[in-house]
Amino acid sequence: MARYHEPIRGVGFRRMLRKKGCRVYLIDEFRTSKTCPNCLTGTLKTFLKVPNPRPYQRKKRKEVLCHGLLKCTNELCMGPVEMDGVLAPRSRMYNRDLAAVLNFRHIFHGLRDHGESPERFWHRKPAAVATTDEQQPKKKRKTARTIK
After folding, report:
1. 3-state secondary structure of 148
2. Residue 72 within any structural domain of the chain
3. Is residue 91 situated within a structural domain?
């Protein structure tokens, strides 16, 4: 356990839900906060610089990137926004947690409809690991599992 941090309630919370008769699923969160839930590409990037929240390190680095706010860099995902009476294209912005939860929904729909999660959330081995042309990188298809 980390110092000065409250213990995670995950295990006890899951056990309590199971005893109440609820189904509990664990989701592999791989790429869920990097993939845009609108255009379905991995184009969410940090962009906003904020003052360093650590006062003792402000001399070294005055500004740091805000990791909680992301914008989609895909041109197809830009939406028109009215600024001063003029329509201008603007990137969609997401809170990192909101983007992940919207992508969880995509994973659950994929599991329900096709029996596997969407391909954009699969783990892949690097292509250099495969030694022959016939060997394909292994893919992890299911990203949710039921706790029994």
Report:
1. coil
2. yes
3. yes
pLDDT on residue 54: 93
Does any domain span residue 41? yes
Provide the residue type at 137 as one letter: P
Count of structural domains, the chain:
1
16 domain residue, yes or no: yes
DSSP, collapsed to helix, strand or coil, labels residue 115 as coil
Structural domain that includes position 115: 10-123+138-146
Q: Which residues neighbour 122 within 8 Å (Cβ) at sequence distance 6 or greater?
A: 30, 139, 140, 141, 143
Which amino acid is located at 19 in the chain?
A: K
* Threshold 0.90, pTM exceeds: no
The Cα angle at residue 79 between residues 78 and 85, in degrees rounded to 5: 130
Regions of the chain with pLDDT less than 70? 1, 125-143, 145-148
Instruction: Tell me whether residue 75 is exposed, middle or buried, using C-beta atoms within 10 angstroms of its C-beta: 0 to 12, 13 to 18, 19 or more.
Output: exposed
pLDDT of residue 31: 93
Q: In this structure, what are the phi and psi dihedrals at residue 96, rounded to the nearest 5 degrees?
A: -55, -45
3-state SS assignment for residue 69: strand
Q: What would the DSSP string read from start to end of 74-86?
A: -GGG-EEEEETTE
pLDDT confidence of residue 147: 64
